[in-house]
Amino acid sequence: MNKRVYVAIDLGASGGRVIAGWIEDGEIKLDILHRFDNGPVFTDGVFRWPWSAILDGIRVGMMEAGRRFGAALRSVGVDTWGVDYGLVDCEGRLRSEPVAYRDTRTDGMMEQVFAQAPRDEVYRITGIQFLGFNTLYQLMAERNAGEGLGRAEHLLFIPDLIHAWLSGVAVNEYTIASTSQMLDVQTRDWSSRLLNVVGAPRRLFPRLVMPGDVIGTLRSEWARAWGIPDMRVVAPPSHDTASAVVAVPFVDSESVYLSSGTWSLMGVELPEPMTGEAAYRYGFTNEGGAYHTIRLLKNICGMWIIQECRKAWMAGGEPLSFEQIRAESNQAPPFVSFIDPDDPVFATPGDMPARIQAYCRETGQPVPLTRGAMARCVFESLAMRYRAVLGMLEDLTGRTYQRIHIVGGGAMNEVVNQYTAEATGREVEAGPVEATSLGNLAVQMISDGVVADLAEARAMIRRSTDLQLFAPRQPEIWRRAYEGYIKATAATSRL
After folding, report:
1. Which pLDDT does position 148 carry in this prediction?
2. Residue 493 exposed, middle or buried by CB count within 10 Å (0-12, 13-18, 19+)
3. I want to staple 246 with a disulfide (CB 3.0 to 4.6 A). Which of 151, 164, 221, 439 is the partner?
4. Catalytic site positions
């Protein structure tokens, strides 16, 4: 059989990749065609995504796909972070570059929404965790600014925008739409109640498509320019976490996943949502997954904090790798100070080392002074936060989970992987690192009929991945340290 090649366009909050994948000897092989930076920038006082640069990066990757694989290319699909969107006119043109979720325009918007739709009602409708940058609150900001949602033709989430650019067809993909906090979690369609609250007309939202649906074919001008004949544009799980969960190499139902990157997302896969009092109180989210599943999970501020620390430490021009940061953290004494990674003080860009020191000072803890001490504080605190969220998850589902699957870029951080095993007392299995792209590609392969279903895809991904195992070594020491973490963060913790 001739090789069939699929392309995943995977955009994270700081960088994008165009990756080709195919099946060979029962495994999925990957070829990274192009990497590019796509971090948000301040433009006229607003934090925006550099849209032209993003499309240029995709063009380079797709041209490389055409050069290397040509007629073997079968389909392409896009996954990105959640909640952000662009408004397009009747000709499909962006009215302005999309605003990034870390912009401050949503400050105070939650309270304005809740004045019209109470907080508990919003949760009952959507089942989505309350995050101040959710699309619901971004649209309230648009309404207040008089931007005129009614003058736009469509609201398209970031992957929807790129799918439309590739195919000329405007759709909203289900998993990315579910992050908006505007989708009814029971009907899996838009909530007219919440659309009315923010003044968003229903016609703004084109048809919803599910992972694996064919959106269209590559536009002829791109096909000619990139040397790619007759290529389909297929919706993967367009929320990057939904694609990553597809690639979790589960072997049983006694496991949780932890998608680890700029954000950490810990949860389980369920057939139906959980929107009861406990889920509401714990702040869990019910996001759409592939093949009619629900991803019950909690968002945790992941590697973002150490990424921002690295930027600050490199401000003087000194090169500094993450490997060096981890090595320095290992030289620092353990369990000296803790932070609550989900405290809002750490959520926005800025001088993160100073914020860590201020948090420790204000909570009566020793103030870390060196890079290693601050990094150790962040890494240990993340592992402790994972333990806390695991406890909530077990309480919600009434189950005990024996294994944590860590996937994504954070799976390369062996220090945090071991700390997670220690803090939770569970076996940790790390990998695949390229989970998001693998999940994206796997759904395209299922859509094309070369992989039977999700179970076969996960078995293939497991065969294709070198997994690392981490077991707890000092459970009693970490149990006592966890008590110190709870005490240190009690004043700021929101569960």
Report:
1. 67
2. middle
3. 439
4. 240
The DSSP output letter for 182 is -
Residue 112, class by beta-carbon neighbours within 10 Å (0-12 exposed, 13-18 middle, 19+ buried)?
A: middle
Q: What is the CA radius of gyration of the chain?
A: 22
Q: Quick check: helix, strand or coil at residue 261?
A: coil
Please give the pLDDT value at position 147: 66
- The two counts, helices (H) then strands (E), for the chain are 18, 21
Show the tokens assigned to 160: 């929807």
E-strand stretches of 367-464: 403-407, 427-430
Q: What is the pLDDT of residues 206-233, one digit of tens each?
A: 999 999 999 999 999 999 999 998 899 9
How far is it, in rounded angstroms, from Cα 233 to Cα 219? Answer: 9
Look-up: residue for tokens 């936060």?
385
Q: Is 76 exposed, middle or buried (0-12, 13-18, 19+ CB in 10 A)?
A: buried
CB atoms closer than 10 angstroms to residue 213: 16
C-alpha 78: how far from its chain's center? Answer: 13
Q: Residues in the chain with pLDDT < 70?
A: 1, 147-148, 494-495
Q: What is the pLDDT of residues 115-139, one digit of tens each?
A: 999 999 999 999 999 999 999 999 9
CB-CB neighbours of 240 under 10 Å:
32
Of the candidates 386, 379, 402, the one whose C-alpha atom is nearest the C-alpha of residue 297 is 386
What letter would DSSP give residue 471? -
Nearest-angstrom CA–CA distance, 356 and 337:
10
DSSP string of 20-48, one letter each residue: EEEEETTEEEEEEEEEEE---EEETTEEE
